Amino acid sequence: MNDRRNEPTTEVPITSVQLPEGTEAEVLAVLRSGQLAQGAVVAEFERRFAELCGVDHAVAVNNGTTALTAALKVHGLGPGDEVVTSPFTFVATLNAILDTGASVRFGDISDVDFNLDSDSAGHQITPATRALLPIHLYGQCADLPAFESLADSRGLCLIEDAAQAHGAMIGGRRAGSVGTGCFSFYATKNITCGEGGMVTTDSAELADSLRVLRNQGMRKRYEYEMAGNNYRLTDLAAAVGLPQLDHYDRQVQRRRSNAARLSDRLSKVPGLALPRELPGRTHVWHQYTVRISDGSALSRDEFVAQLQAAGIGAGVYYPHLVHDYECYRENPRVHDSPLPVARRVASEVVSLPVHPGLDESDLDRIASVVAGVLS
Ligand SMILES: *Cc1c(COP(=O)(O)O)cnc(C)c1O
Question: Ligand 1 in contact with 183 (CB < 6 A)?
């Protein structure tokens, strides 16, 4: 028999899926319609998501990794081309680039917003560079105006990994509306279909290529224009995501007030650096990520262990640089560079629960446990 009584239970989880009322009816309607694959619900989900992002076109795909691969491919990226991105991201960013046959170089990050630094990225540009790929990590936009002018001045395309940043803003513009936006609807993301993804763009031409690419390169039945793939989302999955769009503003408001409460309660804890929303940006708080600095009472890993023992779901996103694994070390298309800030940050970060399912007593408990273990 399984005896789970002595295992620590995570009482305040790091993530929790909360689907609005009406989701079951929406999914049931798709089941009963007999049209389960891509159809009218996907089209409606695309229209509504384009509206959320303030773009002309949104093209749904089956996950966020595919969104990145598809965006890179329709921009023409392939063998011999280079992409400059952040070394501090989920592995999907790197895998999508490698999947196209392109090579990757890394700029360092800022320890203020955890995102790719545009000056450092600029130093990684070579004659082979074709694209810049900043990530809006944890729900706060990278410095998109800086990346936009860098891309314009060097003739590069700009692709945004917005998998964690649905609805985030910078200078009044939405994530995914400056470059070509790539979103994920994985189960833990701010908006979820279980699995799903979206590419956003103002270019009718790119949107058209994306639609053909995701459907085996087929425009009309059995007429193929390019070597495509099956990247389609299903109506069944879109029906899970669609109702969340009606409530998304409120969900973001909750994430924002949860973050504000944590920051208020944690402001005086020694050895703890709190995350900040930078001026001109609207953070959507996919994660609330603190840093455990040198002067702190515990090491990062001890801190995480103590939080978990106390029933607080804490996560480390991400413990290593994205390419710092054996499987990438000998890959000639993965170019390492000195990345001192990213390396230090990867050893310091811990994400605390901030999702909309938390109430004030959960937040106060998180804060008091954090303060307790660090004092
Ligand atoms: C989740 C995520 C992805 C990939 O999305 P999937 O839907 O899991 O394929 C890509 N980049 C980042 C930064 C992510 O967090």
Answer: no
